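anyone else get weird line breaks when pasting these?? whatever heres mine. first is seq + C-alpha cells for prot A
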Amino acid sequence: MSEEQRKMLVALDISDITEIVIENAGTYAKILDLPIEFLHIENNKSQKQEALTKLTELAKNVNEKYGILPEITIKEGNIYTSISDYANQTRPILVMMGTHGLTGMQKIFGSKALKVIVGSSIPFWIVQDKPKNVELKNIIFPIDFTFESKEKLTIVKYLSHYFKFKVNIVTPNLKDQILRSKIKNNLIHVDKALTERELEYEIIIGADKGDMADAVTKVAESINADIIVITTTKHIAWNDYMFGAPEQRVIPNAAKIPVICVNPRTDLTKFASFR
C-alpha cells in the first residue's frame, strides 16, 4: 500500500452516529499508528462555521483521549461523490464512515453508505456501533468464483501487521463444476497469501443456492465476528441499488458488525479470464 498516504480519513456528517464513528476511528487509528483527517461535506455556507466549531471540539476530544489531533477538512459537494473523490485524490490508507443501516426509504432505494463507497479505490471501514472487541480476532472473508473476489486480500494482509486474527472464509455451495473450479483456484491463491502471513484460516461452505449475503451475515453472527471484509459489486448500477446488490444486505447487518468494503480494480479487468 505504498502509494497511499499514511492516514485515516474519517467522513463525518455530524449526526447521532458521529460519536460512534469517532470512537472507532480513534481506537483503531491509535493501533494502526495513523494520523486522522476529519472530512465533512457542507453546502450551506451559513453553517460552515458552525460545522467547523463542532469538528474542532470533536478533534480536541480525540486528541485528549487518543493522543491524535485530527486535521479538519470541510468541502462543498455531493456526499455520494465528494467523499470518494476526495479519498481518491488524497489516497488515505482507509476511510472510516458510519451508517444507520437500511431505514425507511433506503430499503427501497438502497443504502446511502453503498452509494458513497462504490466510487472509491480506497477501502471503506463502515461502522454502526462502538467497538465491541478492540483486538480483531475473527474476520469474515467471503470468496466466490469471481476474479475480483481476491482483491480484498491487500487490506487483510495490512491488518495482519497489527492484529493476530483467524480468517473465516465463506464460500458458496455451487453445483456448477466450472464455477467450483474457479472458487478452488481463488482459494489456492488465498491459501498462499494467508500462509505467508502465518494466519490461521477455516473454510466454511455456507451459501446454499448462491445466497452469499445471507450466508456471510449468518456465519458472522454465529461466530461473533469482529469484522467482515467484502468486495463490492463490479460496475454497480441503479438496478443493483433497487433490487439488492449482495453487499447492500451485508453492510447494514442486524448484528452491527463492522464491514470493510473494497471496490474491484478496473485496471485488472483484462486479466479476468485468468481466474
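and prot B, same format (seq, then C-alpha cells)
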Amino acid sequence: MSDTRTAPAQNEKPKCVEAFRDRLLNERYLFTSRMLEAGAWVLDNKRIVALETLSVMARESQLTPSIFVRLAKAMGFDGFSDMQKLFRAPLHEAYPTSLSERISHIQGDEVVRDPADIGAMGQSFCRANSASLAHLGGRLGELPLNAAIDRIMAARTVHIIGIDRSFPVAAYFSYALRRARVQAIQISGTGSMALDQVAVMRPGDLLVSISFPPYAQTTLDITSAARAAGHDVIAITDSPVSPITEDAAEVLTVDDAELHGFRSLTAVMSLVQTLAISLAYRHREAGDLDLDQINA
C-alpha cells in the first residue's frame, strides 16, 4: 500500500494533542495503515516524540523515519519538526498519561545494569508488570466491558485471532471461553490457513481481534476480511487508532509494559480473564455452570 493519500484542500493542522488524536480517529481515511500505526505509537510515546530525534523514534518504534514525516504532512504540519512542537506542551494537559510515560515519569527507567543478575532482571519485570496492572485497574470503568460481554454472549461462535506476541492471549481466551460454555475457535494461522479459517465464519459469528505494535499483518488481514464479510469485531489493542479498530463494534485498549523489547502480557491477560470470568458468572446465573469445576 502506498504511504501517500490525497488530503482535502484545506487541512488545518491540529492545535493540540487531543485534536491530533481526534483526526486520526475521525478522518482515518486520510492515512495509510502505516501512518495509523505511527500515529498510535506517537500518542503512546508523547514524551519521546517531544524530546527525541526521528532516528530515536524510528529505533524505538521499529518504523521508518519517513513514515513520521509523511504522517506530519498528512496532518497538515510543515514537517516533523512542526508536529514535534505540538508534543512539547505539558503532556498531562493534552492527553491521558499512557503506561509508557507512567513507567518513565513515576518510577523512572527500568534499567538492568547486569543482565546476568537474574534477580535484578526479575525485579524490573515485576515493577513493570505492577505498573501495567495499576494502569489497567484505574481505567476499567472507562472500557465497554459489558457491551463486549453482551456481544460475546449473543454470538453464534466467537472466533479469536492473535498472532506473534498476542498468540498466548488468544490461546488462553479461546480456552477460557470454551470452559465458560461459549463456543470459541482460535484462528491460529497454522499452515497459512488463517484466511480459510475466517472464510468459514457464518452469520451471527463474532471476531475478537488481538494485536499490539508491531501489528501482525495476518491479524490485520483477518480483521479486514471479517469486517468486509459483515461480522462484528471486538478489538483488543493498545490505542483507539490501532489499525484493527476501524469500524470495530467495541474497542478495549490496554497498555502493557515493554522492557528491553519484551512486552509484558500481564495486563492484557488480566483483561481477557476479566471477560471470561464475567461470562462464566452470567452462565452460572442461568444455572448451567459450576464455577468450582470450570478449571479456567
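btw re prot B: Confidence is low (pLDDT under 50) at residues 1-10, 90-108. The chain has two domains: 17-94, 140-293.
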